[in-house]
């Protein structure tokens, strides 16, 4: 039995898998023995539909390696599209063991310039997309009595970044949604986890380069290959990952991080209760030492990836 692969017999749906991280996970999943539904609507970075060739090309490459895959061109932001891709998985392969919610778009703007349309579009794909696909998959997984939901979050949401209110809100929403799924679905052995990936992809290629420091940072990011994200995603999809749920990980080149989740860090108590003056003179001075600084992701992950 030594030639057993970690995902033998598993069926995985990967959204936004025509390129970048999604494609890398789909390819590696197929190599690890999974049958893969490769979803991609062939959209430009900001979400305009272009062509469905990317998903077809990924499927052709998987088949060339001797793997099994089908292409899907449905839109994650449409609940019926999500149902259709899950149905395609069960029609083609008979079951659905893992979902990687990876599809995403970017429409970066500073908040004072952000339009409703650009906020709405990004939240629809990332947050609603994650809900739609997970919701459709949950029905199949409940019936099976098992499943793994893997969602892409971002340090833009977990820590913060400039000019990404839409993306940050959606990605922190995904982390909270994942925790709720882990709680609500545990009785059916369905687990839910997040990965915040650092990798050079179409999404990060839109980072504005307006200084030598920024250029250097982007060049470092180019070294971070999307394939580096795949091993953790495959582990979470496999039986070996069965006891991991409700967690948030980050992957940066050869580093894997477990991210913290909000918990109280400090408290103050006053027997007689608070008024506006005592909040100013007592509560805030006592709590101030533990304030979270106004930092961005690059301030927290400030050392070079190894």
From TrEMBL:
InterPro entries in alphabetical order: KR_dom (IPR057326), NAD(P)-bd_dom_sf (IPR036291), Peroxisomal_Beta-Oxidation (IPR051687), Sc_DH/Rdtase_CS (IPR020904), SDR_fam (IPR002347)
PANTHER family to which the protein is assigned, alphabetical: BLL2957 PROTEIN, DEHYDROGENASES, SHORT CHAIN
Family: Belongs to the short-chain dehydrogenases/reductases (SDR) family.
Organism: Salipiger bermudensis (strain DSM 26914 / JCM 13377 / KCTC 12554 / HTCC2601) (Pelagibaca bermudensis)
The name this protein goes by in its record: Probable short-chain dehydrogenase
Lineage: Bacteria, Pseudomonadati, Pseudomonadota, Alphaproteobacteria, Rhodobacterales
Superkingdom of the organism of origin: Bacteria
Residue span(s) of domain Ketoreductase: 10-206
A family per Pfam: adh_short
Gene3D superfamilies assigned to the protein according to its UniProt record, in alphabetical order: NAD(P)-binding Rossmann-like Domain (3.40.50.720)
PROSITE patterns documented for this protein: ADH_SHORT
